[in-house]
Each structure stands twice: as C-alpha cells, then as structure tokens.
Amino acid sequence: MCLGCGRSNRVAAERRRTIFALYMLAVASVLTGVTANSQQTNIVLDGNSKGRVFDGLGAASAGASSRLLIDYPEPQRSQILDYLFKPGYGAALQHLKVEIGADVNSTDGSEPSHMRTRSDHDSTRGYEWWLMVEAHKRNPNIVLEILPWGAPSWVGKDTLYTPKMAEYVADFIKTAKRDYSLDIAYTGLWNEKVLDVAYIKELHQRLTAEHLSTKIICCDEYPGEGAGQWAIADEILKDPELGSDIDVIGVHYPLVDGKISTTDAARRTGKQLWSSEDQPNGGSGPFVSRDWDVGGRILAHLYNQNYLEGSLTSTEIWSPITSYYDNLAAPNSGLMYANTPWSGNYKVQGTIWATAHTTQFAMPGWQYLDSASGYLPEKGSYVTLRAPDSKNWSVVLETINATHPQAVSFRLIGGLAATEAHIWQTSSSRTFEQVARVNPVNGMFQYVFEPDSLYSLTTTEGQGKGTAKPPAPAGFPLPYADDFEHKPLKHAPRYLSDQDGAFEVQACTGRVGKCLEQVISNKPIPWGPLPDPFTLAGDAAWTDYTLAADVHFVSASPAAIMGRIDSADVFQDGSAHWPSGYVLRLKPDGGWELLSAEFKKPVTTLSSGTAKIDSVQWHRLALRFHGRQITASLDGVPLVSVNDSAHSHGMFALGTEWDHVQFDNLQVTQ
After folding, report:
1. In this structure, how many other beta carbons lie within 10 angstroms of the beta carbon of residue 247?
2. Alpha-carbon torsion (88, 93, 95, 99), positive or negative
3. Is 9 within the bounds of a domain?
4. Percent of the chain with pLDDT strictly greater than 70
5. How confident is the model at residue 635 (pLDDT cuts 50, 70, 90)?
6. Rounded Cα distance, 656 and 523, in Å
C-alpha cells in the first residue's frame, strides 16, 4: 500500500539492510553494544486486536499565525506548502483547522471577516480560503475544520452564542463550497470559551436546516475553563439529544501536570476524542524550540502519549507555521518557521519530521491495535495501527527518554502481512531516514532500537523526505516604501500585519489612486484583548530610522504612526490600546500628542499640542529616531523634539481608533 501517492523513490544515501531477523539482531547487537543478557521486549502484532479509529494529525491556522505565508514569493511559497501538506514529502498534515475571521485580535493579529454585516459576503478577504485551497490541492483527502475566535458585532452582544452566529458559521461553510469547492467536515463553537448547551443545539439545527453535512466538535476548552475542559462529556451522558448533536469531543492542551486529562465520562460517551489544539510544551510557559533536540523530541512522545493515556485519536498543533512577527504573542508556535517573505527564507524544523513519522505511515480510518500499543520497559512508547480491509500495518515507536539500546521482538498474527517491513528513524544524527528493511521469518522479526530516537516500522511504501532548500535569511528591506498602487482593492498590502480591525487597499478620498484604509467602524465581539486597530511591519532590530506616511481623515478617528515597537504582544496587557513603542497621533481638529506606551505601565505623554490643519486635506506625519532623540513632524515642519530612552529599537505601525482613516505613501528610511 502506498501512503505517498505512488511515490516509491528512495534517497540513494539511505542505509538499507536486508537480512534475516536473527542475523540482523546479532549484527545490530554488535553495532549498538547490546549484549546477549540484555532484556528483550516481545510485542505481538495481532490484526484482530481492538482499538479506536485513528482520525489523523493536523494543525490549526488561527490567530493570524499564517499571515505572512501568502506574501512569500515562488517557488518558496509552494515549497513551504509542500512540506506542510504534500503526502510523502514532509509533515503530510491530514487535518487543517482554520479560524473564521472576525476582524478582531485572536492572538497574533486579526483575521478578516467574510461577512461584516448580514448582507455582506466577500470570500476574497484574507488568506485562510487560499490556504485551504492549497492544502486540498496537495491532499484532496485532507479534513477541513473551522472555529471562530470572535465575530462581527451584528451576530450578538458580547457573546457568540446566538442564532445569528449559527447563521454566520453556516454561511462560511456554504461559501467554502460555493466559491472554492471545499467541504468543511467539522465546526467548533467558540475557541476556549465555556460551553453553552442551548447554542450547540441551535447550531446543529441550523446546519440541519441548511442541509449541511458539517459535524460539530465540542468544545475546544482550555484546562481550568468553567466546570472543566471535559464538562461536555457529563452533559452528553445526561442528555441523549445533545449527544446526537455532537460528533467529536475536542479539548485544548490535555496534558495537565504531566498527565493526559481525559475523563472516564468522556470515554463512556463513545465519541471520538481529540486534542483539538496542542503543543510540544503542553500549552504552558514560553514556546519551546521546534528543532529536533527540543520540540521534535517532545512531540514524538506526545503523539503516542495522547492515544495511550488519553484515547485521543487526533492531535492538532497550533500552528502549522510560524508566519507572524517574533515580537507578537507566543512566538515560534508553528511546525515550520517562515516569517520573512521578503527573503524567501524558511526553516523545516524537527517537529515536521516528528509529525511525518505518523502521517506518512498511517491514514485516517486506520485502527489502533491496543494489544500492540504500550510502553517499553526501559523508557519509550509504541502504537500500532492497521489499515482497514488490508493486511498492512505500521508501528510508531519512540525511545526519547531511553539511555541505552533496546531489543524488541515482533510477532505477526491475526492476518497482518508478514512481508518486508521498512524501518525509518529520526534522531539527533538522522532526519527521517530509512535505516533498515527486515523480512519476518515464520511471522517474526527482531530489531534493536537506539535511545533518544523516533522510529516508524511499516509494510507500506511511498514515504519520502522533501529536498527543497530555502535561500539565505535577510532582514526587512530598508529603505522601504509602499504607495499601495499595485495591490487589488479590498486586499491587504504585503508585510503589514493587522493587529485589530482591517487595513485594506481602497480608492483614495481627496486624491487620485489607491490608499490604505482601516475599514471596521463597529467593534467586533472579542476573544481576548481589544486594542485600537493598528497594522505592523518592519524589523525588531531597527534603531535609528525615519517613518513617514500621508494621512487623511474620513471620520472623527485620529491617525497614528508608531515606531520602535519592541513588543506588539497585546496579551501582555489586556488594557493596552497600542503596542509598546512611540506613538504620534493627530486628530482631525489638529490636536496631536507624542506618547510612549509600555505594557503594564501608564502611557507617558512626551509632548502634545494643537496644529492648524485643514481636516479635508491630506497631511504627512513623520517620526525620526536618532539615539535618544525622537522628532515628530507634520507636513515637513517639526512639531517637537524630545529625548527619551524607553524604547531603543523596534518595528513600525500605522493605527487609528475604531473608524475609517486613510494612509498613503508609507516610507521608512535610515
């Protein structure tokens, strides 16, 4: 059976050994130092064993985590997508969950809504539609899921649990099918919010009325939420109607205090149980490196642990790729790293290959064999899966915390194929290499597994390791300029990352051409902190530079330019209106202020005043940074020059309040 769409090529340098089982064990024992007295583990692979059905591994593109990926040039953009989604190449993700955008900050920015009012429909906004299309293009069997973080104001007041929200979700599902021929398999309720039984029933009724086959996963809760992240299981056991409305129970970060938190009640529901958002660090503390020696090793153990301890048949990582700026919240969440589209550089991290050791060897619909899944006596774990209506099988075995080699004997019964098995390994010295072929003798074979490694054993073919290489990294281009003339209307310009609201290219008011406009005037229903709208770009290492932009008032909201932004993680301070940096604001009546904003500290007004301006005309704002000196200018005339040392380096941004303002001729120079 081929799991890589017919790919049977092998890298010539891969180490292969085709020997009989006992002879192979003897040779391996010499090579690894295992003695005849070493303890040997015996595992029976029984095709008749019971177990849950594997639902696949995936990732969640949400919280603006994929924002910069769409700005990558070719061929690097396609190479990245191949490493994420192409079977037999890289992570070969089997699920993709995307955020239903709402123009509200959902961790690392705001994702645009497709339906800002009840009569508004535009599926060209944003990048999640594009990402789903690209994923489906590479893997037509990929399972697509959706989940809202916030919602436009028209769906309700302070809550997503309304009939109008059910309408909003249903419209997204229908739009995916109508405009992109995409089938959304699952939808959630509201990311990491306490469940609402009445809304679950409302959403199910809406999906049924619209003749949509999309199933409900509930309830994507974080540990400690409300009555607990598994509280829905108790509700299902009490309410059969509710149980029929829900197909999957999903929780976020089920690893709590070193243990998977699945409850007995959850198992008794008979529902499929998923880790619907997870991380190599269990979701706590700073995000770890995704290289093999840290995140890859953790994830290799976690995938097995989620099933062995928690009966979890799917794990989804937030996020597929780190395509957001490093000074935003939760840096380095992705399986891959690619947040410098101007350079084309990206990084294929160890977490890609930790994932590939499952996804390239088992498909959704395969069955876990519980009698052949467990823990090695001297550290390590293994799970075995078999293909439906097939003799093919795979074992995913890790020895991450082992300190010496372990000999394992395998016996095949219950109709499993006793044919040649291929063994793949990842460790600190090998990356997704086929290291051996073994031929069972009388249905048995043996192998010695090295410590601190991840292995896949399989009778299938088609696995592969991508070979594309990125160009060298490079800093954000300086000087930098954008007049927005070359971007289609109603789309976001390159590199700018909206942190609340939506900054889109629109026709200029008061001059010919295109401009950048913040277009959201009604505050959406938030998920977390709700700063004033701003859009961010640049290089965190910049120190001395000049930022300038034309501004035009089309509402009563002020226009702001910001520089030396050393942190834009608004989740550090839920009350912050702006990122941590210097802010120059101009109001339509000519009032201006130069501010220093720092998280968890009062905003400092460095200077303020009133300039005589015509609010109907365009005006040019500028901020110049030179050492401790900050100079603010209006229409080429200095407003003030002050000395301050609160922010020595950082990125730039454009911002306003919750209404329309236009910007043009953005420029950053040294």
Report:
1. 16
2. negative
3. no
4. 93
5. very high
6. 13
Strands 497-498 and 534-537 come out as: antiparallel
Q: Are strands 559-567 and 546-553 parallel, antiparallel or unpaired?
A: unpaired
| Helix (H) / strand (E) containing 620 | strand 619-626
pLDDT at 32 over 60: no
- Residue 3 in domain: no
* 323 φ/ψ angles, rounded to the nearest 5 degrees: -120, 50
Mean pLDDT across the chain: 93
- 348 in the same domain as 441: no
pTM over 0.85: yes
pLDDT at res. 31: 37
Token representation of residue 9: 């090529």
Identify the CA nearest to 663 among candidates 501, 430, 540: 501
**Phi then psi dihedrals of residue 473, to 5 deg:** -70, 160
What average pLDDT does range 457-469 have in this prediction? 97
Q: Which of 99, 145, 277, 450 is labelled catalytic? A: 277
Q: Which of 134, 167, 192, 398 is catalytic?
A: 192
Torsional class of 533: left (φ above 0), alpha (ψ -120 to 50), beta (otherwise)? beta
Whether residues 293 and 379 share a domain: the answer is no
* Block residue for tokens 């909003």: 168
Distances (CA, A) of 449 to 302, 423, 457: 19, 10, 11
* d(C-alpha 185, C-alpha 249), whole Å: 14
pLDDT in tens, 118-150: 999 999 999 999 999 999 999 999 999 999 999
| Residue 2 located in a structural domain | no
Q: Are residues 211 and 73 in the same domain?
A: yes
Helix, strand or coil for residue 42? strand
Pair of tokens at residue 257:
């205090």
The CB density around residue 73, as the number of other CB atoms within 10 Å, is: 12
HSE-up of residue 293 (Cα within 13 Å, Cβ side): 2
Helix pair angle (197-209, 163-180), 10° resolution: 40
- To the query of whether residue 111 is one of the catalytic residues in this protein, the response is no
In the residue annotation, 202 being an active-site residue is answered as no
**Looking at residue 12, what DSSP letter applies?**
T
Q: Is the peptide bond before 75 cis (omega within 30 degrees of 0)?
A: yes
Residue type, 518: Q
The answer to whether residues 558 and 616 belong to one domain is: yes
| Four-residue CA torsion sign, 41, 44, 50, 55 | positive
Strands, E, within 502-603: which ranges?
503-507, 514-518, 534-537, 546-553, 559-567, 580-586, 591-597
Beta bridge mates, 510: none
**CA 532 to each of CA 435, 498, 529: distance values in angstroms, whole numbers, following the listed order:** 55, 11, 10
CA pair distance 77, 89, nearest whole angstrom:
15
Contact, 279 vs 302, CB < 8 A?
Answer: no
Residue 119 burial class via C-beta count within 10 angstroms: exposed 0-12, middle 13-18, buried 19 and up: exposed
SS3 443: coil
| HSE, side-chain direction, 13 A CA sphere, residue 132 | 27
The CATH number covering residue 530 comes to 2.60.120.560
**Residues, the chain, total?**
670
Strands (E), 102-142: none
Residue 538 class from Cβ within 10 Å (0-12 exposed, 13-18 middle, 19+ buried)?
buried
Q: Helix crossing, 163-180 with 128-138: angle to 10°? A: 50
Q: Say if residue 348 is in the same domain as residue 436.
A: no
